[in-house]
Amino acid sequence: MRRYQSIVSSTLLLSLLKDMETGQRGYVITGDSDFLEPFNTAKWYLKPATDSLRNLLSDNEDQINFYLKKSLFRSIINPGILKTA
User: Fold this and answer.
1) CB of 23 within 8 A of CB of 38?
2) What dihedral angle (degrees, nearest 10) is formed by the CA atoms of 18, 7, 58, 61?
3) Is-contact 24 78, C-beta < 8 A?
4) How many domains does the chain have?
5) I need a labelling partner for 24 at 20 to 30 A (CA). Which of 37, 39, 54, 83 fits?
6) Rounded average pLDDT per 10-residue block, the chain, 85 residues
């Protein structure tokens, strides 16, 4: 059951990151702030999703490092857009 929960949580986190990247890309290309709607929605859910995955993986430091500490999601989120959004 725990493995299934980890997979579901990882899938949700990936979906949120894709939504953020898509919104960010649309905004950067067009300058239209309407594209930030999926970015802002995903940003609101990102911390709880990350915390949930961290709790599920709390007994496995290697998995925490893989999913969270070295995660690519920190590199796809443009800090300038976070200030704009």
Assistant:
1) yes
2) -80
3) yes
4) 1
5) 54
6) 84 88 90 92 88 84 68 56 53
